[in-house]
Amino acid sequence: MTWLVTGGAGYIGAHIISAMREGGQDVVVLDDLSSGDLARIPGTHVVQGSVLDAERVARTLRDNDVRGVVHVAAKKQVEESVNRPLYYYRENVEGLRVLLEAATDAGVGSFIFSSSAAVYGSPDVDVVDEDTPCLPVNPYGTTKYVGERMVEEVSAATGLRYVNLRYFNVAGAGTPELTDRGVSNLVPMVFQRLAQRQAPRIFGDDYATPDGTCIRDFIHVADVASAHVAAAQALADGRVERLTANIGRGEGVSVQEMIATIRRVSGTAGEDWSQPVVEPRRAGDPARVVASADRIRDALGWKARYGVEEMVASAWAGWTARTAG
């Protein structure tokens, strides 16, 4: 069975490719390479193109006899989505519509959708489970929630089997060469500041949390990848027909705590210049979002393996290897 992975040359996508291939799955990648890098996925068949290109998507599915799709490709920066909502609706919603239409026309039976904890918005609960109301507070989160509903409604109409996976805050690296090269996520953002001998930035310290900074559930990217392998196997085996599940550890870590871990792992904790500075809140950031991962454990037998220290250490190894080169 061949799986198409959209966005497979990106940070998360490349980890999914590696895990799926290691698990014996045949994969082909569709990626416009706007943020992806072919060096991450050597030996993988790659079609360069956008999910918005209906003809290319249909041809890729047909030419490779694709039976399952893992849809990772998306725009994902919260602040950018607030400033450019229509861009996010085009890329994330219209792109998914084109892909779903091509997939159902081609008789694809299984679909895994990369969703996000952003669908929950600012939930007023200690731990978020999948029955928590979805009330996104930014356009990015809205596009992911709309995407989930599209997948569910196409499934109801066509019998498409699906798993919607709601990622929490992804960090770490499976191997140094697969490290996150962008600077939109907290960990690489702090790395970049430290590399320039600049203080890490905390966006708001007046939230209703113990230390005033946002609390998130950080999840190792290798765990995210293994969840996709578990979902793909369950869909292929017919053990799962329809599933929406969180990918998280169920443990909250504040931004202040995470920066302290990064400073310690990077060896900069004793430097005065590495003390974080507080800046105004960013638009669209909720105070606390921490996952319940019970549903994915019960449905797929999956649970996270890695802790925060391992995430930061693996990400730092990748960052230093890349910057040294």
From TrEMBL:
Provide the alphabetized UniProt keywords.
Carbohydrate metabolism, Isomerase, NAD
| Single annotated GO MF | UDP-glucose 4-epimerase activity
| Cofactor(s) annotated in UniProt | NAD(+)
Enzyme class (EC, first level): isomerase
Q: In which pathway does it act?
A: Carbohydrate metabolism; galactose metabolism
Give the source's domain of life in one word.
Answer: Bacteria
Q: Mind telling me which Pfam families this protein's record contains?
A: Epimerase (PF01370)
Which InterPro entries does the entry link to? Epimerase_deHydtase, NAD(P)-bd_dom_sf, UDP_G4E
Tell me which family the UniProt entry assigns to this protein.
Answer: Belongs to the NAD(P)-dependent epimerase/dehydratase family.
Q: Which NCBIfam families does the UniProt record give?
A: galE
Name of protein: UDP-glucose 4-epimerase
Q: Which organism is it from?
A: Geodermatophilus obscurus (strain ATCC 25078 / DSM 43160 / JCM 3152 / CCUG 61914 / KCC A-0152 / KCTC 9177 / NBRC 13315 / NRRL B-3577 / G-20)
What is the phylogenetic placement of the source species in the record? Bacteria, Bacillati, Actinomycetota, Actinomycetes, Geodermatophilales
